Amino acid sequence: MDAVGIASLRNQLGQALEDWVSSPGMAFEVSSSSWYLLTGFPFVDANVALVHQDDVMALKRIIGLVERFGVPACVLLANHARGLSDRIGEGWRFAGTTPFMSLNLETVELKEDSRVRLASQDDFETVVALMSETFGMNHDIASQGASPLKNPNAESDIWILEDDGHAISTAVTRRVNNAITLWNMATSPRFARKGYGRAIMNHALHQAKQKGATVGLLMATDAGKPLYDATGWMGVEDWDVYLKVPANN
Fold first, then answer.
1. pLDDT (tens digit per residue) in 53-90
2. Is there a single domain that holds both residue 79 and residue 172?
3. CA dihedral defined by 5, 79, 244, 73, rounded to 10 degrees?
4. What range defines the domain where residue 181 resides?
């Protein structure tokens, strides 16, 4: 894939974050060289930014916003932006890389699963509980993760997999142009390694494919990458990860 195509995928991923803007005090922007979502919640994954071009001013703006919010944050640097690492400033630490991955939906077999359904507002606490248990979030931060359920203008879908009367897995998807983005895929640790994550992901992607999506996009965690590798996802590029956790957090 050429540089223009990769840049488009990066921006599609960033655009999907808009549904987590749940209050006027949050900061969200997608530009040609970067994107960011700063919610103000004291959890590093709730305040994330990507700089993917050699744009010093974009990086400075993001770092300034993080300083103003005073919360844990993650800044990602992609290929052409890696040279900006010495401009991030004090208090940030390099934490390795994270894969940005894509899936060609036209070349993989995807199946519906009768155990999976769309969540409604009535499922809010169920989704919060699954995210909290899986990711180690407190209730308030997990509530931000599930906040698209309470946003009447949100375009995200939140999915729940139930088996034998138990809510076991959840995942969030958001369609941006031809891409379906995948977020917050959470399976209760009590039911790990039993195929539930694969099932909810395949169902959500199948539904998106039926509606015209042609590519899947996600940022992979260490825990999730083996599943993505086994189901046909391919690395687009690796992003350098820089973390900052203020002393009062």
1. 999 999 999 999 999 999 999 999 998 899 999 999 99
2. no
3. 0
4. 105-236
